[in-house]
Write a structure and sequence with these properties.
The protein is 22% helix and 45% strand. The chain is α/β, with parallel strands linked by helices. It holds the Pfam family Glyoxalase. This is Glyoxalase/bleomycin resistance protein/dioxygenase.
């Protein structure tokens, strides 16, 4: 078994697309609409890991009522540089930086409140 992709149901696809491409540097793989009211975007990082963003206008009220339990985690080369970049993009750090045995990390949130951990491993 191997990992295929993670899926996040979003309220505003364009806002989420901009966040994941501009802030986390993911690239567009494909974008399509499988049926009326549903739009899907697949994004990919430099290692080929994929993230699926889905906006389904048919269940929008359900998504808005539900609190996300998802957290994504990415490794960064320099947490200091990443924090400066996040500040330039007006992205709030909601947790950390926290030092742990293997490195340090911060937590940010996407436009829908999905938590994203950004880790720098000890060198």
């Amino acid at each position: 078994m191997r990992f295929k992709f993670a899926t996040i149901e979003v309220k505003d696809l364009e806002k989420s697309f901009k966040f994941y491409t501009d802030v986390l540097d993911l690239s567009l793989v494909r974008r399509f609409s499988p049926r009326e009211g549903v739009e899907i975007i697949f994004l990919e990082d430099r290692n080929g890991n994929q993230l699926e963003l889905i906006e389904d206008q048919n269940v929008r009220d359900y998504i808005e009522e539900r609190a996300s339990k998802v957290q994504l985690s990415y490794e960064v080369d320099s947490l200091q540089k990443t924090m400066r970049f996040l500040a330039s993009q007006s992205v709030e750090i909601v947790g950390g930086p926290v030092d742990i045995q293997t490195g340090r990390f911060i937590i940010i949130e996407d436009p829908d409140g999905v938590r994203i951990g950004l880790f720098e491993e000890n060198k």
